[in-house]
């Protein structure tokens, strides 16, 4: 059985990966918006209710891989696909409104495979193939905390932002209290 399924949206088709306990949810929590990152290094913002493409931006220097909304509907966090070794800029806070990079986040040495925004504050987590989970704050360039793990991590917050989970290869899930 194929671990992926596809759904059509306009002329584009996007895969939502359900393999290995992951399900990418690129929807804004409150607004009817969807954001996608594509292999052509584009980021697309959609109005879901009207099935309309709102904006497309291109990010050729760093690429676009994993993506999630911040609390603001025109602001996203995007992981890089290119130049990780030379720049170390593994994550970017992007404004979809004016196509600007608001902040770079340096730290991961390999590709980011999981992103999750806190539902209650400006912190977010990233999991990387460098076997680490990093906790960040949108207002600060530096990493606020690091978990060193064995294997590929997947990260998620609970809906109240009190607990976060890290799933690892082999099916282990560790729960942690969120920093306040």
TrEMBL record:
Source domain of life: Eukaryota
MF terms (GO), sorted A to Z: chromatin binding
WD repeat start-end pairs: 27-56, 105-139
Cell compartment(s), UniProt: Nucleus
Major localisation: nucleus
Xref: Pfam families: WD40 (PF00400)
One Gene Ontology cellular component annotation held by this UniProt entry: Set1C/COMPASS complex
Keyword DNA-binding: no
Keywords tagged on the record: Nucleus, Repeat, WD repeat
InterPro entries xref list: Swd2/WDR82 (IPR037867), WD40/YVTN_repeat-like_dom_sf (IPR015943), WD40_repeat_dom_sf (IPR036322), WD40_rpt (IPR001680)
Protein name: SWD2-LIKE-a, ANTHESIS PROMOTING FACTOR 1
Originating species: Hibiscus trionum (Flower of an hour)
């Amino acid at each position: 059985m194929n671990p992926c399924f596809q759904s059509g949206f306009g002329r584009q088709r996007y895969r939502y990966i359900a393999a290995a306990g992951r399900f990418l949810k690129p929807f804004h929590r409150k607004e009817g918006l969807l954001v996608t990152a594509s292999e052509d290094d584009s980021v697309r913002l959609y109005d879901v209710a009207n099935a309309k493409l709102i904006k497309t931006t291109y990010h050729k220097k760093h690429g676009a891989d994993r993506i999630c909304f911040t609390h603001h509907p025109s602001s996203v966090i995007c992981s890089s696909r290119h130049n990780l070794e030379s720049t170390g800029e593994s994550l970017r806070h992007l404004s979809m409104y004016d196509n600007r990079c608001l902040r770079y986040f340096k730290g991961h040495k390999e590709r980011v495979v999981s992103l999750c925004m806190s539902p209650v504050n400006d912190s977010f987590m990233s999991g990387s193939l460098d076997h680490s989970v990093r906790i960040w704050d949108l207002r600060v360039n530096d990493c606020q905390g690091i978990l060193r793990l064995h294997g590929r991590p997947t990260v998620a917050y609970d809906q109240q932002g009190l607990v976060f989970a890290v799933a690892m290869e082999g099916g282990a899930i560790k729960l942690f209290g969120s920093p306040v």
